[in-house]
Design brief:
Elements: E1 13-16, H1 20-31, E2 36-40, H2 63-75, E3 80-90, E4 96-100, E5 107-109, E6 113-116, E7 120-123, H3 130-133, E8 138-139, H4 142-145, E9 154-158, H5 163-173, E10 177-180, H6 186-194, E11 198-200, E12 204-210, E13 213-219, E14 224-226, E15 229-233, E16 235-238, E17 269-271, H7 283-302, E18 319-320, E19 323-324
Parallel strand pairs: 1-2, 1-6, 2-3, 6-17, 8-15, 9-10, 9-15, 10-11
Antiparallel strand pairs: 3-4, 4-5, 7-16, 12-13, 13-14, 18-19
Catalytic activity: [thioredoxin]-dithiol + NADP(+) = [thioredoxin]-disulfide + NADPH + H(+)
InterPro entries: FAD/NAD-bd_sf (IPR036188), FAD/NAD-binding_dom (IPR023753), Ferredoxin-NADP_redctase_2 (IPR050097)
Domain FAD/NAD(P)-binding: 12-290
């Protein structure tokens, strides 16, 4: 199984990131007989999580095990290559410059297409001991982990415009919920109170626990509010600064803007998975996007593109009289 590209070889596609979106896209592209180089810095944001949930056939699998198996399955095909590296830049002509990591080589490659599947970086609230419990007692993904928290006394930490909506959703699984946030409006506080959700406005300074078991949330006054676990609302930062030379469109939060088929505003440049910040941010969703973008890339390289509204371009065998024929 090749783990790095042959010297001088230029892949059809470079995939940046080896999470569920990148690995699924890579697998589908090598099965389409495309040569693919996958570049991965191996810094997944789900690394602290012990188990991932909600993916058919894989419920409960450790995320790092999923990455390992996915990489092995991708590399089992001719045309597949993987390298450990950090992408420094993607040029306007799609030239990809890579600094090798963990023994991987420095590379400059010239693919026909580039897929960005780097996901997000999570910036957690500055709370003492929070990271010690993150991925076990505390989580960020409600869809992924709320079921396991059913009936527990939970905390919701962080801030953001969607904090109240997240609280109302979490309370479906665990009605004993307290939101720890000092900057909610009076209207938001009333919404929480009407739903039976508690609110603590005093600043949080630490997470308390015994023998790796979370027991409470310590406030600035020293008071400890007993809690068994909960959820954190991090700030999410897209990993896409290496696209600066391409002028690819990004939204106000830095997320890569794509069409229905995961094309960016730059021909030959695609993005899928959490770097586009679609909801929910689950493995199954990212993997599905990887499958869709793989087909888009393959057909674009054939010169038989999929239209931006999701239909096959006119003139293809599957597009007759203006109607899509599946």
């Amino acid at each position: 199984m090749p783990t790095s590209p042959a010297e001088g070889a230029q892949p059809d596609v470079v995939i940046i990131g080896a999470g569920p979106a990148g690995l699924t896209a890579g697998l589908n592209l090598v099965r389409a007989r495309r040569s693919v180089l996958m570049v991965d810095a191996n810094r997944p944001r789900h690394a602290p999580t012990l188990h991932s949930h909600g993916t058919l056939g894989l419920d409960g699998i450790p995320p790092l095990e999923l990455r390992r198996v996915g990489r092995e399955q991708f590399l089992a095909y001719p045309g597949a290559a993987h390298t450990s590296g950090l992408v420094e830049s993607v040029g306007a002509d799609l030239t990809v410059s890579v600094t090798g990591l963990r023994g991987g080589p420095d590379l400059v490659v010239h693919p026909q297409a580039v897929l960005v599947a780097t996901g997000l970086t999570e910036v957690l609230p500055a709370i003492e001991n929070l990271r010690a419990y993150y991925g076990t007692a505390l989580h960020s993904c409600i869809e992924c982990d709320a079921y396991e928290k059913s009936g527990q006394a939970l905390a919701l930490l962080g801030s953001g415009p969607d904090l109240v909506d997240r609280a109302l959703e979490i309370a479906h699984w665990a009605p004993d919920l307290i939101v720890f946030c000092g900057d909610l409006s009076d209207a938001d506080a009333e919404t929480l109170a009407a739903a039976g959700i508690g609110l603590e406005r005093e600043p949080v300074v630490a997470i308390e626990g015994e023998r790796a078991v979370m027991t409470g949330v310590r406030l600035a006054s020293g008071r400890v509010v007993a809690r068994e676990g909960g959820f954190v609302r991090p700030d999410w930062i897209p990993q896409a600064d290496f696209l600066a030379e391409t002028d690819a469109s990004r939204d106000a939060h830095g997320r890569v803007v794509v069409d229905a088929r995961f094309r960016t505003s730059v021909p030959g440049l695609y993005a899928a998975g959490d770097v586009t910040a679609r909801e929910p941010m689950q493995i199954a969703v990212a993997a599905g996007e990887g499958a869709v973008v793989a087909r888009t890339i393959h057909r674009d390289l054939l010169g038989r593109p999929v239209a931006r509204d999701g239909r096959l371009a006119e003139g293809s065998p599957d597009f007759r009289d203006g109607e899509f024929i599946g």
